[in-house]
């Protein structure tokens, strides 16, 4: 547990290790929730919409090894199957 002080303006400075733990970089934001009993909870607000955020997220989580061509074929098959299901309705 860390102890922090407030300024005369009611502000608190947190140490770098807090931000590192939350994954917050300079200029990013965090959300603070007020909880019962005078407690607070803070968490990083993650930016949405960047393709780079998903790179590598499945690394090491699957044993399937496919080539780009095999992935393209599987996606094409799924699109055709979905189209055929829609036509039959």
Structure characterization notes:
The structure is a single chain. The chain is an alpha+beta fold. It has one domain (16-88). 31% of the residues lie in helices and 13% in strands. The chain is built from two helices and two strands. The longest helix is centred in the last third of the chain and has 21 residues, at 68-88. The radius of gyration is 23 Å and the shape is elongated. The chain starts with 15 loop residues before the first helix and ends with a helix. The model has no long low-confidence stretch (mean pLDDT 87).
In short, what is this structure?
The chain is an alpha+beta fold.
Which short descriptors sum up this protein?
single chain, 89 residues, alpha+beta, two-stranded antiparallel sheet, 2 strands, 31% helix, 13% strand, elongated
Topology:
Layout: H1 16-22, E1 30-35, E2 39-44, H2 68-88
Antiparallel strand pairs: 1-2
């Amino acid at each position: 547990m860390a102890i922090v002080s407030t300024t005369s303006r009611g502000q608190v400075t947190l140490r770098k290790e807090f931000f590192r733990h939350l994954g917050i970089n300079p200029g990013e934001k965090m959300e603070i929730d007020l909880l019962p009993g005078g407690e607070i909870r803070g968490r990083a607000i993650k930016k949405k919409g960047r393709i780079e955020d998903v790179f590598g997220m499945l690394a090491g989580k699957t044993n399937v090894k496919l080539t780009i061509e095999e992935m393209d074929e599987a996606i094409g098959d799924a699109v055709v199957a979905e189209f055929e299901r829609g036509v039959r309705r």
